[in-house]
Amino acid sequence: MAQGAAKRIHLEPLSGYAPELNPQEGVWNLLKRRELKNICCADLWQVEDEFRHAKERLRHRKPILLQCFAHASCPV
After folding, report:
1. How far apart are CA 31 and CA 34, in angstroms?
2. Do residues 73 and 21 lie in contact, with contact meaning Cβ atoms separated by under 8 Å?
3. 20 to 30 A Cα–Cα from 12, which one of 22, 28, 48, 69?
4. What are phi and psi of 62, to 5 degrees?
5. Taking the model in full, what pTM does it have?
6. Is 24 left (phi over 0), alpha (psi -120 to 50) or beta?
7. Residues 49-62: pLDDT tens digits?
8. Residue 67: exposed, middle, or buried by beta-carbon count in 10 A (0-12, 13-18, 19+)?
9. Residues 65/58, Cβ–Cβ less than 8 Å
């Protein structure tokens, strides 16, 4: 480790499984329960295409994404 690196890095210990502390879990829930709800795909390629479109729709909804961070108590 380089000299002084310990001063710049802050490690935060988290429990092994704590979805309420992870904003990514909120994003996954939005994708599964809202954006991809009732989607029936014929093959894996269609699943990939639907997922890509769902991510694009969600990435333009900044207030909703910020709520995922707020719910996890993460400052943005």
Report:
1. 6
2. yes
3. 28
4. -60, -45
5. 0.66
6. alpha
7. 999 999 999 999 99
8. middle
9. yes
